[in-house]
Amino acid sequence: MPSVLPLGDPAPSDGILPPQAAVGAGDRAFGLYVHIPFCAVRCGYCDFNTYTATELGGGASQDAYAGTAASEVAFAADVLKDSGVPDRKLSTVFFGGGTPTLLPAEDLALILRTAIGQWGIEEGAEVTTEANPDSVTPESLAVLRDAGFTRVSFGMQSAVPHVLKVLDRTHTPSRVPLVVQWARDAGLAVSLDLIYGTPGESLADWQYSLETALSYEPDHISAYALIVEDGTKLAAQIRRGEVPGIDDDDHADKYELADRLITSAGLEWYEVSNWARTPEQACRHNLAYWRGDDWWGIGPGAHSHVGGVRWWNVKHPAAYAGRLAQGTSPAAGRETLDAETRNVERVMLEARLQSGLEVASLDTVGRHQIAGLIAEGLVDPGAAFRGTLVLTLKGRLLADAVVRRILPD
């Protein structure tokens, strides 16, 4: 089933943001996330807000979706203006899902064109779409490039057929090198997403997937440990004993292998689960999330954040379309973060970055933890002496534990 929305306060029907949202906005970057909630098949591990054709039900249409999303773009521009948030050009745009490229490339181009028409876009801005390897063609990638897309992130996940089968992925491993080449021919930067720790995946399987992915010389790699979410098909299979469960030691071994092989291939980590060939090829959109910039999330279930005000849209595409057709906000709820919550989130996110967290920004308790973290090999001593907390490889494996140590009780 699709993921559950968080609890929060009711969102006003006009979408107007509280005054806090405008404070300091001119000093923050502004990005756009576009959620495309459609998939050809629901993967067994996925709890994202996505729908196959049979799950979609009445009142919602893939064919009409681009126009509906474009109407939220116009609504968003009006809300920001009426809320006193200064005009800013888009610094990043990210189409995620779901499978964005399940829609015609012309539909994605329409949404992007509408957004640029409303806000403009910075020179050299990053514009990314996620894609399944079996959902693009050379022609569709060329359309995306011509529309202004600069980057494509392919959900490769694994190069091993039996692992892909457990994950319910629909593409074959032989498809990946083809789409990587098509993207390069179109002039798009290429990222590959991998998942490790799938039930039944051996260390040798994972090494093969890594070496295969690296042989395609991507500009960027994301490698995420598989998390088994309640309510998914995979969780039920594990509960019934049909596939083995998740092993934390196995995850650690596979992360260490990933870091060693990816680094040896010339990419450098910049966030715990992400590596880029150059600093310029790091995913700037995700960095904006991790650094607390502003973004508007378009689409059902999409989340937005502007100046410490966070909100999320209704989940179902039919409810989402219905609200916009009535000229009302599609937001289901929102929250205004206080200074303490914003600081906690900042520490949690910045500590995961290779650029690190300023030690001086921690409270007294947090600063007093640094020496112990260095002694345990979790924090780089040289960086700490220069005033920045940067995780070692061991620290990246235990990032959540490090964060708990440096946050106030």
From TrEMBL:
<dbReference type="Pfam" id="PF04055">
    <property type="entry name" value="Radical_SAM"/>
</dbReference>
<keyword id="KW-0349">Heme</keyword>
<keyword id="KW-0143">Chaperone</keyword>
<keyword id="KW-0479">Metal-binding</keyword>
<dbReference type="GO" id="GO:0005737">
    <property type="term" value="C:cytoplasm"/>
</dbReference>
<keyword id="KW-0408">Iron</keyword>
<dbReference type="GO" id="GO:0004109">
    <property type="term" value="F:coproporphyrinogen oxidase activity"/>
</dbReference>
<keyword id="KW-0411">Iron-sulfur</keyword>
<dbReference type="GO" id="GO:0051539">
    <property type="term" value="F:4 iron, 4 sulfur cluster binding"/>
</dbReference>
<keyword id="KW-0949">S-adenosyl-L-methionine</keyword>
<dbReference type="InterPro" id="IPR006638">
    <property type="entry name" value="Elp3/MiaA/NifB-like_rSAM"/>
</dbReference>
<dbReference type="GO" id="GO:0006779">
    <property type="term" value="P:porphyrin-containing compound biosynthetic process"/>
</dbReference>
<comment type="similarity">
    <text>Belongs to the anaerobic coproporphyrinogen-III oxidase family. HemW subfamily.</text>
</comment>
<dbReference type="InterPro" id="IPR007197">
    <property type="entry name" value="rSAM"/>
</dbReference>
<dbReference type="InterPro" id="IPR004559">
    <property type="entry name" value="HemW-like"/>
</dbReference>
<keyword id="KW-0560">Oxidoreductase</keyword>
<keyword id="KW-0963">Cytoplasm</keyword>
<dbReference type="InterPro" id="IPR034505">
    <property type="entry name" value="Coproporphyrinogen-III_oxidase"/>
</dbReference>
<dbReference type="GO" id="GO:0046872">
    <property type="term" value="F:metal ion binding"/>
</dbReference>
<keyword id="KW-0004">4Fe-4S</keyword>
<protein>
    <recommendedName>
        <fullName>Heme chaperone HemW</fullName>
    </recommendedName>
</protein>
<feature type="domain" description="Radical SAM core">
    <location>
        <begin position="24"/>
        <end position="268"/>
    </location>
</feature>
<comment type="function">
    <text>Probably acts as a heme chaperone, transferring heme to an unknown acceptor. Binds one molecule of heme per monomer, possibly covalently. Binds 1 [4Fe-4S] cluster. The cluster is coordinated with 3 cysteines and an exchangeable S-adenosyl-L-methionine.</text>
</comment>
<dbReference type="InterPro" id="IPR013785">
    <property type="entry name" value="Aldolase_TIM"/>
</dbReference>
<dbReference type="InterPro" id="IPR058240">
    <property type="entry name" value="rSAM_sf"/>
</dbReference>
